[in-house]
Every structure is written in structure tokens, then in C-alpha cells.
Amino acid sequence: QIEQITPPMVLETIRAIEARGSLEMAAKTLQRIGAVFRFAIQTGRAVYNPAADMRGALKARKVTHRTMIPPGELPEFLTALSAGDIHVTTRSAILFTILTAARSGEVRGATWAEIDLDSHLWSIPAERMKMRSPHTVPLSTQAIAILNRMRILHGDQVLVFPGIHYPDRQLSENTMLYALYRIGYHSRATMHGFRALFSTIANEAGYNPDAIERQLAHREKNAVRAAYHRSEYLQERTSMMQWWADYLDKLKAEQAT
Q: Alpha carbon 127 to chain centroid distance?
């Protein structure tokens, strides 16, 4: 009976899941148990929620950071990307991802309907965003140049970066990752790591941290702050992303000399 379930019984169940190494599943299971008991209390089937006493009992999940190349190695990487044996669509998608500080999934799924070449804006709908909130990305002249190249190569009907072998499908995540491998960056770089690299360099350059976070489409964790802090920082981000693109060009040019 539900009223006979005790905290040690809940803990035993959670510990069994933790023992498999499934720490995230253990946390989700505890949340679900708590939800069941809250419903039981609300409907008169129980008077106590034993899951509520499990605070601090779960093992902490280890946070793993995506591999990021050091800022000092960025010129070498840009040169390798430019000279590597990579399909032009894949190379363009990788560079566009870096130029926009977007998630690779957002880039791979980008459609021409989201692109405004005249206004230099990329408007990603909420359903394609991790946080389920629409996101506007200002595009540098370098990013626009990539889009124009893709339009010449593939047309502008649906996908900006279509699959190489299956043009009706978006470019796969592995295609981009394996391209990094081919130019010598296996275990040294990931697509997601370039977002952290952009954040590091932009913060060190003195740009507004709030504008940087907005460019990364990060959600404000403080609920009160989020309610009053909804600025898009679009003008500031437009300037920042052009600076970022010019900075990358400068690094590549200096590497070539």
C-alpha cells in the first residue's frame, strides 16, 4: 500500500539505479516517485511523501565539458579547416557554426525560410531551439557570404546545408564531427566546443556578458531576473558578431604570413 512506503524503501530503489551508473535516470525516477506521492496526498490516498526526504541522497552527476581547443590554437585550426580535404558544404556549415556561435543542430536544420539576407538576420523558430524559445541571430558579412555560396551551389528551396549524399535531408552531425577528425582534431575539438571558445574570447575582449549569453541562446536561470531581463541586445550582438568574424579573419591572415 502506498502509505506503507518508507524513505528507506525509496532510497533502496534509487540506489539500485545508481549502481548501474544511470545517475540521470535515478534523478528522474526520484522526481517521478515524488510526483506520484504528491498526487496521492492531493487525492487523500496518502499523507506523507517519502521522496521529499531524499534531498542530498543522490550521487552528484559529473559535469563533462565539451572539448574546446585553446584560444591560442585557433589560427592553426582555421588554416587546417580552410586547407583540409572536406566537402565544401561541410566546411561551410562548420565555419557558419563558428561564425554564429550557434549549436550545430540549429545550423544543420537551418532553412532558407529562416534567413533574411537583406536584414542579415537568421530567425530560428522555437521548435528548433533547445530551450524552446525563438532565437534571432545577427549575421556578419562573412556569414552572409557563406549563405550566398550555398544558394549558388544548392539553390534556396529548403535546407541551407543539405546532406552530401541525400540532399533532401539535413547534413548529419557525424559528417561535421568526422571532418574535424580528418584535419587532425580528433579528441581535440567538438562542434559544441566552439560556443565555449567564442564565449571565452568575447568575454576577454570586454563584451557585455548578457549579450554574449543571449547570442548563445542561454536561458536566464534566475526566474526573477528573467522576468525583467528580456532584452535581445540585437544591436550590440550585431556589432559583436561582426567583430568576431573579423577577428577570425585576422587570425587566419596572420597565420598565413
A: 14
Q: How far apart are the first and last CA of the chain?
A: 76
- pLDDT under 50: residue ranges of the chain: 63-64, 224-229
pLDDT of residue 122: 97
How many other CB atoms sit within 10 Å of the CB of residue 133? 11
Looking at the annotation, which residues are catalytic? 103, 130, 192, 195, 218, 228
- Cβ–Cβ < 8 Å for 198, 97: no
| C-alpha neighbours within 13 Å on the C-beta side of residue 231 | 13
Locate cell 535581445: which residue? 232
Whole-number pLDDT of residue 221: 54
Beta strands in the chain (DSSP E): 115-116, 121-124, 135-138
Kindly tell me the burial class for residue 156, based on how many C-beta atoms sit within 10 Å of its own C-beta (0-12, 13-18, 19 or more): middle
> What phi, psi does 136 have (nearest 5°)?
-105, 130
pLDDT at 89: 97
* Among candidate residues 39, 33, 29, the one with its CA nearest the CA of residue 51: 33
27, 56 Cβ separation under 8 angstroms: no
Question: Which residues does 208 contact at the CB level (< 8 Å), separation at least 6?
Answer: 233, 236
In this structure, the number of other CB atoms found within 10 A of the CB of residue 73 comes to 15
Q: What are the contacts of 186-193 at 24+ separation with CB within 8 A?
A: 187/67, 188/67, 188/69, 189/67, 189/68, 189/69, 189/77, 190/66, 190/67, 190/68, 191/94, 191/97, 191/104, 192/66, 192/103, 192/104, 193/66, 193/67, 193/68, 193/69
